[in-house]
Amino acid sequence: MNVLPVILWSDALVWLMALAALVLGLLSRRQPPLAAAWRRVGRSRPGMAAATVVAVFVVVGLLDSLHYRPALDTPAAGASAAPAYAIETLSVLDALAVPLRLRGEKTYSAPLATHAFAKETQEIRAADGSVQQVRDFPRLRFGGAHLLREEAPAEATDGDTANANAGVSRRTADPSATTDASPVSSAMAPSALPATSAMSEKAAALAAARQYDISRRVGVAVLSALIVWAGVVVWVVQLLARRESLAFAEVGRRLWRGETVFAWRAVLLTLAAIALVVAPMLALAGDYHVFGTDKVGQDVFYQVLKSVRTALVIGLVTTLTTLPLAIFFGLAAGYFRGWIDDLIQYLYTTLNSIPGVLLIAAAVLMMQVLIDTHPQWFATAAERADLRLLALCFILGLTSWTGLARLLRGEAMKLRELEFVQAAQSFGVSDLRIIARHILPNVMHIVVIALVMDFSSLVLAEAVLSYVGIGVDPTMISFGTMINNARLELAREPAVWWSLAAAFTFMVALVLAANLLADAVRDAFDARLVGSS
Amino acid sequence: MSHEIDFAVQPRQTPPRGESVLSVRGLRTGFAAGRTTLTAVAGIDFTLHAGETFALLGESGCGKSVAALSLMRLLPPAGRILGGEVRFAGRDLLRLSEAEMRAVRGRGVSMIFQEPATSLNPVLRVGEQIIEALPGGMGRADARERALALLAAAGIADPARRIDAYPFQMSGGMKQRVMIAEALAGEPQVLIADEPTTALDVTIQAQILDLLARLQAERGMGILLITHDLGVVARAAQRVGVMYAGEIVEEAPRAMFFAAPRHPYTRKLFAALPDGVGRGHRLETIPGQVPPLSAMPAGCRFAPRCAHAETRCTLAAPAWREVAPGHRVRCHRVDEVALAASAVSAPLAAEMAASGTAQAAHVGSAASSQEFRIQEFTAQEAAVQVSAVQVSSIVPEGTEVGSALTAPSPLLEVRDLAVHFPIRQGWLRRAVGAVRAVDGVSLALERGRTLALVGESGCGKTSVGKAVLQLIASTAGEVKLDGRILTGLSRSALRPLRRRMQMVFQDPFASLNPRLSVGEIIAEGMQALGLGRAEASPAAAVAALLAQVGLDPAAAGRYPHEFSGGQRQRIAIARALAVQPELIVCDEPTSALDVSVQAQILNLLGSLQADLGLAYLLITHNFAVVEHLAHEVAVMYLGRIVERGTVGEVLHSPRHPYTQALLAAVPRIGSADEAPPPALSGEMPSPANPPAGCHFHPRCPRAGAECRTAYPAPVAVSATHTVYCVLNAR
Ligand SMILES: Nc1ncnc2c1ncn2[C@@H]1O[C@H](COP(=O)(O)OP(=O)(O)OP(=O)(O)O)[C@@H](O)[C@H]1O
Ligand code: SF4
Ligand code: SF4
Ligand SMILES: [Mg+2]
């Protein structure tokens, strides 16, 4: 396939971070105290379960960070002619999620629905040839469209009883429509059409078919998930058995009892749980809208997947901005003391005394003006949104380094009084080298702890800022924009709840997992001195 | 329940003296480590009588503290009591419910801890903390009255003012007194004191031990005194139990204990004391280390380190043997050991030194594979390793000290050195005063000699050492190294001189960067100063240095946390030696170490000096170490030197009242049967505003009117002995 790879700035940063994490991981294997701390993380059962969940999110985010522009089918594609590429920038995730991305409905539809959420006026030709105007819920273009397909175009008047398990949403949504909330059969009764019974029969048939289809797919998905999972378990056990040269059964027994050093049981059980949840969703996603659709008919499941990357970028790139500032200012203030300390302290006290949201709002608005007045800077809309996302990260980073810097300053003040620092000074080792060799490695645990703790609060901060309207570009899908849109949807009667629910569930899953992992990391790294003395 | 009421309301009926108040049988305590439990206390028995002090003596990590915490049932979360019985007031404390136990703590048995700084709550006034510990049902005024009485009983001067003070406003000794007052609040029958004086100066230690003895005489309490210090045992205990690796191995009345210790471990402990052995002699050491909890030897736990061990020792744990009334020992070979010792105790030391390497190798193979063996290199071996690279003049032993002090160019010369730390206050952080840490100190040190700087904590010893090395800026005065003035030099001008002087720090756990390997730590100085040694590569240089300090060269790849305190101190010494210094400032090099390890380090320092001609500025508060290592002594008080002279002059005929008091406060093992001399009263004033006149006059028992007006002028007692006290002028 002919594509033009596009590297957005945030892609570069995300992959750089992934690479850096890998390199740091390899380096910390050579540092016994750090390696021991990471091994302690590996032993923590909740920590590793959370890490598994986070890893799934990270994979989604990384897939969504490989961008390209597909080639357009130009009619005269001569060898010499430069291929033309679509203006739209896609990611690998978009390519994998084509069914989700392209099969938009007209507007809202409830999760797993076959019919739209609002009634529309449709004209149908009755058997006698007369044209009737009917207000009813139309079949969706894609959601459950394969069910009883042959009748669908003509028989658009199926009762919405089909929507068997979306009971909440079955009340009519259009304010101008009849506001009867009674079951369809009775609502249909006044029209007293001869087709009524036939139609309700079809509706019942559709409902049954949908129910059957869904349960079949879920069943198959659960089964295959379990089979794949069992395969993974066998593979892991085999790997361990080979590495430790033990009998397969013995390793299996240890793993089952949770006696392995690395918390394999927690990881595998979490994987099982994830597989059991995700596999049915994937199986259904092909022909249904698992989480319904939004106002413009876009699949909410797709939006949720896209939000993951935004959250990860916000969480990671912001810390990337925060870290150098915090480390540099914190350590310099704590190590040198004197006027350098005074200066840095004044700087962060001043920053801290301005309410953070105001500072961010001011910076974001300024940036927005800048972006709006220079449209020529950006080749695609994706680039513009991306730059705005990065700018938001930097602004968040610039305003949030103070907490970590203060912690590091205190720690550096303690460390500089320690005797190994004085021993180095008595050798005439230069200050920068002392900071790099003697101070920094000894505050690394604080940095790691702050990093993982900050991640979830940043994800939440994005949601809040986007809600207030000073977050990411409105065209960029994020948990924040989803929740912001849901604000209006919730005000409808009946409420459109699924968008908010999906965004909320996924965000909570991500933040909760990140927090649990942060706890495990903190415990492991705080205990480092216990183990070493 | 009647007991609780007894403790709470009525004045306690003191049990008759000599009656048992606490009896421990087969107490076993462990720590959960993963899926296993490591036994830290392996079945100890002892009985504590009313009005008696029983000392539990042992080196660090032998389980003393864990035993004490088990009695109180205050173990950390991982701790588990595995068995045994603790009889107190007719009940087994280990079988009580937590609520019943709470009533016993404080009322029946109370405890004071090693670190007074952390055992008091910093945000509560001391009065409130004592009142909290009083039995309930007392009115506000009564309680305050009681707290005042307790503070007075604990020897706090002016309790009416101090009762409203916060802990940070008090010195370490005062905090320990408050802690004692708090422990006494519930009128306990048993007081457990876990290293109550380890964090304190000798003078304050003497005060606290006297206080405990007085309180005990008044109240007839039983005191369980936990300590690692034979001197404290000699001064304060009536009976002694020696702990080794979680077991009590010997138990005896004090007099018998000091006169005729029977267990090989105890005998080794005595032999390792630097007391009495003259300078230049090697101290006896105990090879190897206390075995880790996870690898306790079967049979006698001391067997891997015992010179008398034979096959049965490694097979079966020895049973108790009563060798004299009240004197019990757990050793298969008590009788042979006693015989052997009386015959060969002198040759033993020589043999140890000579065959050290072979013996260490034997121990190494027996000990766990993770531990490095400590090789006792003989002087010749070490000398061969370094003679190629280290060229220094060695002052012959016979040189007269007098000529050393007046020699034309001493290696180190300090004149009128002052270090003042500004006290900053207020919004603009203006200096409103100064802490005069060092206030005019002059010293001279020859090559190959040792000058000891002694004094109470806070008198400015360490500041002198750091100012000499230019690690802190001096306020006035000059420091000359080999005739070149160091004070005021720029960093780059100082760099080539840094090679010539190095420091060894007190705390071997804080002085090595835990993130660097031993090899990197040792190589750092060579790299920083751009030194290439004669050896082909830095790795070879590091290996030679490690061998020089008696460590396995393979240690270079390990990290500091894998080493014991003594081994870490060796690494720190190797780091200093790496740049071939001529002067090493040793800041309390052994005070964080156990007696047996201290002996190893003192031997090492001694042999390095003999071989390399190093000069040591030895900062210490331990007179035994001074006697063993130093040639000259300077006694510091409040930033100034009050007496200076050779070791013989200062330690054996001290002229300054402060020196005399310091020496009197040192618990001496030889004087176990004499009554200890009265302790020096009061504490060192703050160096921020020293008293006018002689700084020492508020505490001086012989101060006269003239002492209050002017600082005394130096008086030369002999060519080498100078005293700053008016008494000697007369
Ligand atoms: N919280 C703990 N978890 C695991 N092991 C412990 C714990 N506390 C102490 N130990 C172990 O128990 C043993 C006895 O320790 P303890 O503190 O009683 O020694 P000690 O004789 O009081 O030493 P020191 O003089 O250094 O205080 C040691 O081997 C120590 O490592
Ligand atoms: S029992 Fe044996 S090994 Fe143990 S102390 Fe006695 S002689 Fe030494
Ligand atoms: S000068 Fe006076 S106060 Fe000072 S030590 Fe001598 S006698 Fe005591
Ligand atoms: Mg202890």
Automatic annotation (TrEMBL), chain B:
GO molecular function, one term: ATP hydrolysis activity
SUPFAM superfamilies in UniProt: P-loop containing nucleoside triphosphate hydrolases
Main localization, broad class: membrane
Cellular compartment(s): Cell inner membrane
Keyword entries, A-Z: ATP-binding, Cell membrane, Membrane, Nucleotide-binding, Transport
GO cellular component, one term: plasma membrane
Residue ranges annotated for the ABC transporter domain, each copy included: 24-270, 412-663
Gene Ontology biological process terms, A to Z: peptide transport; transmembrane transport
Cited PROSITE patterns: ABC_TRANSPORTER_1, ABC_TRANSPORTER_2
Membrane topology field: Peripheral membrane protein
Protein biosynthesis among keywords: no
Pfam family, one: ABC_tran
Coiled-coil region(s): none
PANTHER family associated with the record: DIPEPTIDE TRANSPORT ATP-BINDING PROTEIN DPPD, OLIGOPEPTIDE TRANSPORT ATP-BINDING PROTEIN APPD
Family of this protein: Belongs to the ABC transporter superfamily.
Name of protein: Dipeptide ABC transporter ATP-binding protein
Origin species: Rhodocyclus tenuis
